[in-house]
Amino acid sequence: MNPYLDEDLVALGDQARRFAADRLAPGFQDRDRTRILDRSLMKEMGAMGFIAPELPEQFGGLGMATLAAGVIHEEIARADLSMSYVNLLASLNGQILSQHGKPEIVTPWLTRLMAGEALFAIALTEPRGGSDAANLRLRIERDGDDYIVNGEKTSISAADQADAAVVFGRTGTVESGAHGVTALLIPLELPGVTRSRFDCHGQRAIGRGSLFFENVRVPGSHRLGDENKGFVQVMQGFDFSRALIGLQVLAVARAALDETWQYVAQRQAFGKTLSAFQGVSHPLADLDTQVEAARLLCLQALWLKDKGLPHSAEAAMCKWWAPKLAYDVIHQCLLMHGHGGYDRGAMEQRLRDVLGFQIGDGTAQIMKTIIARARAGRSAVPA
Ligand SMILES: Cc1cc2nc3c(=O)[nH]c(=O)nc-3n(C[C@H](O)[C@H](O)[C@H](O)COP(=O)(O)OP(=O)(O)OC[C@H]3O[C@@H](n4cnc5c(N)ncnc54)[C@H](O)[C@@H]3O)c2cc1C
Predict the structure, then answer these.
(1) Do 28 and 79 form a contact (C-beta atoms < 8 A)?
(2) Closest atom of ligand 1 relative to the 153 alpha carbon
(3) 125: phi > 0 → left, psi -120 to 50 → alpha, else beta; which?
(4) Ramachandran class of 173: left when φ > 0, alpha when ψ lies in -120 to 50, beta otherwise
(5) Is the CB of 46 under 6 A from ligand 1?
(6) Which of 16, 119, 130, 254 would be 72's cystine partner, CB 3.0–4.6 Å?
(7) For strand 120-123 and strand 164-170, is the pairing parallel, antiparallel, or unpaired?
(8) Which residues contact 202 (CB under 8 A, 6 or more apart)?
(9) Domains plus CATH for the chain?
């Protein structure tokens, strides 16, 4: 029983869990080695209605609650965190496109996104830094009906695999800060776009890299939101992704915990099962409690979003707490497996996979600043 999930959402989660166990879990370690996201699996996810089910019906979506996206997301992540980036990027970018794009431009992209036929990146971070997110240098300049884009985005998830990106850049002066930023939908096959890929610690199937723009001509129709309002209008979507990231990493932690409870209930030492020792079972019980509590917080953030209520502070809580907790849980589970936990395998991959989310989409310090501003007032917590 869960106060946020009715019978339909529980059934949807069960359906996603069966699919993920059957189709995604078997190749989870192979994809880490080959560093390629499987496009045919993406299409299967799309055919099942598992990608961005919350998108409005007017764009061909299913118009479901964001809680539906959440329960699917955690089941996909439980099997393979990299594959669940497909859901995360589709929900975040799908919300931005559907709310801020011109319907005739974004509808074909949204159709492909939901079908698993296209992958979108979100390009905000620059080499100069990511935390001070409004301090952008990438230039977006008007040229008649078009924009010309010059500059670099870095540390972008799926940079070399994505078909298009939502790109934030500066249309105003450097001094204009958040009020001189514009967002564009940029198809990444346009002339002047080049890409690189990093050698990441985890999340290796989705990967990260840089996007380079050299005199890239983008039609003005591809602008998202108003000129110079990209940061203020379009950035609102990040509350959604922060709650989803919480569910994503907690699902990986839950998988590690479930396996570890089974393991310690069977493995023997000193004539007893490991779980008979409180030094083994109590740390696991502590962490299990915290995973349950953190999951409820993430579901609450989505529930608030579905009700149209403020949830920025709750989403920031999910984003700093869940990735740290998930890392601590998997670390403890790995140790409980003794020397076997240190072998290359599911447990060490999970540890590498969840770590990235202590940085990606904003660090704990930035999330705590958002929470402090919500509680004490923005003027009491200056940048
Ligand atoms: C796995 C992963 C995926 C990512 N995916 C994307 C993506 O798809 N798109 C995208 O645009 N970016 C992405 N990023 C980039 C990410 O958003 C940035 O790395 C992040 O915002 C931090 O920026 P930075 O790395 O430049 O660190 P910096 O901003 O240089 O910060 C360095 C350290 O200083 C701390 N710090 C900075 N300012 C303050 C302050 N005011 N108070 C206290 N501490 C502070 C930070 O918390 C951090 O610990 C990803 C990163 C990772 C690791």
Answers:
(1) yes
(2) 11
(3) beta
(4) beta
(5) no
(6) 16
(7) parallel
(8) 81, 349, 351, 352, 353, 354, 355, 356
(9) 7-118 (1.10.540.10), 121-228 (2.40.110.10), 235-380 (1.20.140.10)
The CB of 363 under 6 Å from ligand 1? The reply is yes
Instruction: Tell the residue number behind the tokens 């099942």, with chain if given.
Output: 48
Task: Tell me, using a 6 A CB cutoff, whether residue 88 lines ligand 1.
Answer: no
Which residue's structure tokens are 């931005």?
A: 96
- Using one digit for the tens of pLDDT, what is the confidence trace for 361-382? 999 999 999 999 999 999 999 8
Which residues of the chain register pLDDT less than 70? none
Tell me how far the alpha carbon of residue 152 lies from the centroid of ligand 1, in angstroms: 16
Instruction: Read off the pLDDT of residues 106-122 as tens digits, 9 standing for 90 and up.
Output: 999 999 999 999 999 99
Tell the residue nearest (CA) to atom 9 of ligand 1.
156
The H or E element containing residue 193 is: strand 193-195
Q: For residues 293 and 289, what is the distance between their CA atoms, to the nearest angstrom?
A: 6
